[in-house]
Each structure stands twice: as structure tokens, then as C-alpha cells.
Design brief:
Number of strands: 15
Region (Disordered): 334-353
Helix content: 25-40%
CATH class of the largest domain: Alpha Beta
Structural class: alpha+beta
Distance between the termini: 29 Å
Number of domains: 2
Strand content: 15-25%
Length: 395
């Protein structure tokens, strides 16, 4: 089996809440040494071919992650997994793959915008399809956490480029399953008594470069739709280095543990800890001393595993479940000539509602004759379906 690639094709019918169950429709076999030559064998699946759905890990994964729109995905090899663990692992991979695509979409939009607009877009929040900002009475983070600035701190061009490189390398790992020249595989609930899964009991770990392990905690969490995709993104970023240059060219590892200074001279109150969780992520993104110096914290933000994982998983989860449909909510402000009178259909001078021709990078909504038009909003495919089933762009 090492010399062949098996491609399984599934179909999913649209439903009111997203997409329905996955039905296997075709199996194709390719020679790994010459995939471009096309399949060496194919089998069309219809009602006449018996299928044991309860044992089809891929079909179960698509049903668990039914909120994920059609998306190109490549699953890494799994080992030591029950059917239930296999389905949950691949559902997490599906969700993480989608979430990674979405945050890269936002970053590419910022990078392709005029330089004078990038800081505004970096701090821009998103909102619902009707243009309302997200909010929650339980957390003030909801709403601000749709902006890239929330995770990575204030805009800087060199940080934007480093973050894009890191996410591009993560995307390559997700589709090539290669980490430092070694093939990535995922092992479910290892039973070795000395394994980290069975000692400190985290959700998972990636201590060995080619082997990611997901522990019991990953399969028992009630938040499968967020916690496990975030975990998969986090673990996949271990053993990664990112080039960046502020004044001096550097190549730095993306890692968990950082030593960061505080106070007036940034050399006092040294703390060495792991950048796990939102509290630490927000600290790296927002710390300033009394002299408004971030003491390098913003540079730790883009070298912290959990920052990347939380940014992609949070934004991606909001999009998957329909909470976040528009980003940015406003266009960058533009200087207006004296005496300018705005078109009432297009907002007011300065920060305004989307002008005619605007195309939302998330939903492909656009402004036409003063009306926001969204593909599929009036029947057919759901908004968001049309802009994600794409051929992966070159890295």
C-alpha cells in the first residue's frame, strides 16, 4: 500500500443547517510514483455496492463536522485508533483545515491591500451577515477576537509577513504531511505508561517530530468543534521555524515557552512560562510598560504556538457556525475633498459601509445599487460555500 494513493470521493446533500451525511460515491487508486498519469483503477459506488457506514471513518468524520463547507483536504495516516477516535480525529482535521484556510484568507487580504490601509484592516473586526458586530454578555473578548490584532498585537509589516509564512508552512504540512523531511502521522491514545498522555495527561503532544499523539482528553472534551481543531493546529506547529526581519534577519522557532521582561527597562520582572491559553496570548499581544514599550512581547506573539492555533480556530469556528460572515465590517477611511457630499447608498466620509463593487473576502458579498448581495442568500448554496471549494493556491 506504500506505492499507491487511494482517493475516496464523497457527496453531501445541502440541508437547512449546512450539509447532510457523506455518501461514498467513488474510489480511485493512483500509482504514488506517477499520480499525474491518472488513476490506475476506479470503482463507482452506488446502492448496489454494500457499505458498512458504521466502519467508514471518513464518512463519520464528515457527519461529525457537518458544518464545514466543501473543502479540499488531505488526511494524514493514523495509528492505534478505534473507529470513534478515527472519526473524531479526522473531523478535527477537517475543521482545522477549514479554519487555517480562513485565517490565511484574511491575512492575504491585508497583504494585498494598499500599505496605508493595512494597519486599519489588521485591527478591523468582523460581524454577522447583517453587519452587526459580534458580542457576548459573558465575555468582552467576543467581537474583538475577530480581529488579527487581538492575537498578534499591533500591526507591523515584518510581523504580517512572518505570520503569513508560518501559516503557509502549516498549510503545507496539512496537505503534504511532512515535518522536517519526515512523514507526519497521528497516534490515538497511546497506552505506554511513560507516555506524556498517561503522565501529565494533556490533550495531545508532538514531542517526536514525525509523530503527533492525541490523548484521552482530546476525545472526551465536550467541545469537539473547537478544542480539538485548536489542539491539532497547535501541535502541528511544533518543530517549525519562521524567518523574520525587523532590523536584523532572524530565523526563530515557534514554541510554547518564552522568557519575557517587564517594567521600565524591560529587563526586570523576568518571567519564563508557556504561552498557553487566552490570558497569555492577550498578554503578548497587548503588554506595554509605562513608556508604551511592548518589551518585545509583540514579537513573542508571532512565535507562540497557541497564538496561531487560537486565532485560526476562533475565527474559523465563528465562520463555520455562521456567526462571522463579513470581514472587515468597515472599509479603511479615505481622505475626502472639501465640499464632498457622500452618496447616501454608500455611507459617509471616513469609515463607511461597503461601497459599490465591494467584495467581502469571507462570503463574497458585494454592494450593488446600495444593496448588499450575498451568493446563495436567497436559496441554493449557503453563503460561504462558493469561496472555499477551491484549488489550493501555490505557497
Amino acid at each position: 500500500m506504500d506505492q499507491v494513493v487511494v482517493l475516496k470521493t464523497y457527496s453531501r446533500e445541502p440541508t437547512a443547517g449546512g450539509l447532510g451525511g457523506a455518501a461514498l460515491t467513488m474510489v480511485s487508486v493512483f500509482d504514488r510514483r506517477d499520480e499525474a498519469a491518472g488513476p490506475v483503477a476506479t470503482l463507482a459506488i452506488d446502492d448496489q455496492v454494500p457499505q458498512a457506514r458504521e466502519a467508514d471513518c471518513d464518512a463519520l468524520a464528515y457527519e461529525l463536522a457537518s458544518e464545514v463547507p466543501p473543502v479540499a483536504v488531505s488526511f494524514p495516516p493514523l495509528s492505534s485508533c478505534t473507529v470513534d477516535e478515527c472519526a473524531k480525529t479526522r473531523a478535527a482535521w477537517l475543521r482545522a483545515n477549514h479554519d487555517l484556510f480562513r485565517v490565511r484568507q484574511m491575512l492575504d487580504f491585508v497583504a494585498s491591500s494598499p500599505p496605508e490601509q493595512r494597519a486599519f484592516l489588521w485591527a478591523a473586526q468582523g460581524g454577522s451577515e447583517s453587519g452587526e458586530r459580534l458580542m457576548s454578555y459573558e465575555s468582552d473578548d467576543v467581537g474583538p477576537n475577530t480581529a488579527l490584532e487581538f492575537y498578534f498585537g499591533p500591526y507591523a509589516e515584518y510581523r504580517l509577513q512572518a505570520i503569513r509564512i508560518a501559516y503557509a508552512r502549516l498549510w503545507k504540512i496539512f496537505h503534504d504531511h511532512e515535518v522536517g523531511g519526515l512523514q507526519l502521522d497521528i497516534e490515538c491514545t497511546p497506552d505506554g505508561p511513560g507516555d506524556i498522555c498517561n503522565t501529565t495527561r494533556p490533550g495531545g503532544h508532538h514531542a517526536v517530530k514525525s509523530n503527533m499523539k492525541l490523548c484521552d482528553k482530546a476525545y472526551s472534551t465536550p467541545s469537539q468543534a473547537f478544542d480539538v481543531p485548536r489542539l491539532v493546529l497547535h501541535e502541528s506547529m511544533h518543530h517549525m521555524f519562521v524567518p523574520w526581519q525587523n532590523t536584523t534577519p532572524r530565523l526563530s522557532p515557534i514554541m510554547d515557552t518564552h522568557t519575557h521582561g517587564h517594567g521600565a527597562l524591560c529587563a526586570g520582572q523576568l518571567v519564563t512560562d508557556k504561552g498557553y491559553g487566552l490570558k497569555k496570548i492577550k498578554h503578548f499581544a497587548s503588554y506595554e510598560n509605562d513608556r508604551e514599550d511592548d518589551c518585545w512581547h509583540n514579537n513573542f506573539a508571532f512565535r507562540n504556538n497557541d497564538t496561531y492555533a487560537y486565532a485560526a480556530a476562533t475565527i474559523g469556528t465563528y465562520i463555520r457556525f455562521g456567526y462571522l460572515a463579513r470581514w472587515p465590517l468597515e472599509h479603511p477611511p479615505e481622505e475626502q475633498e472639501e465640499g464632498y457630499l457622500p452618496d447616501p447608498d454608500c455611507g459617509t466620509p471616513g469609515v463607511n459601509t461597503p461601497p459599490p463593487g465591494f467584495s467581502d473576502p469571507l462570503s463574497k458579498c458585494y454592494k450593488s445599487n446600495g444593496e448588499l448581495v450575498c451568493p446563495g442568500a436567497h436559496g441554493g448554496l449557503l453563503p460561504g460555500d462558493l469561496d472555499i471549494a477551491v484549488i489550493c493556491p501555490p505557497l
